[in-house]
Structures are given as structure tokens and as C-alpha cells.
Amino acid sequence: MRFRLTPRETSFYDMFAASADNIVTGSKLLMELLGADASGRAEIAERMRAAEHAGDDATHAIFHQLNSSFITPFDREDIYTLASSLDDIMDFMEEAVDLVVLYNVEDLPKGVEQQIEVLARAADLTAEAMPNLRTMQNLTEYWIEVNRLENQADQIHRKLLAHLFNGKYDAIEVLKLKQIVDVLEEAADAFEHVANTVETIAVKES
User: Fold this and answer.
1) Residue 5 lies in a domain
2) What pLDDT shows up at residue 127?
3) Which InterPro entries match (predicted)?
């Protein structure tokens, strides 16, 4: 790590950790969605919406701190990118839940549970990694594993699309379900973007 003679604003670390912890909350709500009935899904959507708002608040707090800090722990652009990417994850998870409720989807296609399991694992890894930004230690395995999970998510997504287009669903149902699985795939991509940003920061700070 580079030696610095100037003090650095350290509250960013806590803010990133809080944002990642909120994503874990969102991933748990996604897991709950799998076993819920219609009324239960509506209630889960309300809690997910609240979590997404909490994520927005966390992101805005980081931006405010960024704009008011003379010295930052690492590059301003990287702070902005990391905060935005964490926020994207929460947005995609909330969108997926909202679509399930809005489209009155009764049965999610087989394979969606695998998508959500991958997201839950990526959320846990991200929450574990954020505190390590303070020291830039023990991060390599994090971004390697998240990239592996994103590759796994790609494979699951392709299989889901093949299943949706096998002729067993009518056209309207295909459109609904495809939008949901596409948004879940975007969440997996966003996790990878966070991991890649952390890798960039770690390389710069080494």
C-alpha cells in the first residue's frame, strides 16, 4: 500500500459496508420470494422497495461525502463508480421483485432459484469484502469468486432462455418471464462490476 503523508476521510468505508449489508437484505428478500404466495409476494415487494430506498439514501450519503471531502481514501472516480455499482445491484433486485408482482406471475420457471442463489452468494461475498477496503487485504479471492459466479449466472441465464423458448409457454408469458430473468442477470453483471471496481482500486493502491 502506498505511504501517505496526508489524512484521509475514512467514513467512506463504513458507508460502503452499510450499502453492501443492505444488498444482503435484498438478496434474502429474493430468496423469500421463491416460496411465497401472491399475497406474500406483495408484502415482500413492499419490504424490497423500502430496502431499495435505503440503498438510495446510502448512495446519496456517499456522494454527499465525496463532494464535501478534500481528501478521499482512493480516487474520487472509483468511489463514485463503486457507489453507483452497488446501487445498481439493489435497483435490479427490486425491479425483479416488482415485475413478479406487477405481472401476477404464478410460477417462476425452473432455474430462477439458481439465479437467486448465485445472487445471494455474491451479496454475502460483497458484504464480507467491503470492510477490507480499509487495508486492501484479502480481496483477491473475492473478485475471483464473484467473476466465477457471474460466469455461472450467464450459464443459468442461457438455460432459462432456452427453457422459455421451448414452446411450452405462450408468447405473453414468455415476454413476462424473460424480462424477469434478464433483470436478475443484470444484477449478476452488476455484482461483477463492483468486484472489477474493487480490483481496480486495489491495484492502484498497491
Assistant:
1) no
2) 98
3) PhoU-like_sf, Put_Phosphate_transp_reg, UPF0111_domain
